[in-house]
Amino acid sequence: MYVGTLSFDLLLGDVHSLKEKRSVVRPIVAELQRKYSVSAAEVDHMDLHRRALIGLATVSGDAAHLTDVLDQCERLVAARPEVELLSVRRRFHGDDD
């Protein structure tokens, strides 16, 4: 069994309130969950209206499949024009950890 996690540190574009922030972050989280069947949520910077930290996790029996899913998730977030991807942190845990 393999567990992979990603955390995306995002700078949001023209956002001036927490309500506007939610209207940007929620669709990203929902698309990650829908397209890739991962667990995803906003996990930090809840009180800042121009920053967001989105975390996701997924489990697979195949390391190559897990890497593919994480790569696709990263590309999806990086391609969003309304956010700037400041950093990505990837963790990969295998049976021998």
From TrEMBL:
It holds the Pfam family DUF503. InterPro entries: DUF503, TT1725-like_sf. PANTHER family: DUF503 DOMAIN-CONTAINING PROTEIN (PTHR36441:SF1), HYPOTHETICAL CYTOSOLIC PROTEIN (PTHR36441). This is DUF503 domain-containing protein. It comes from Streptomyces bauhiniae.
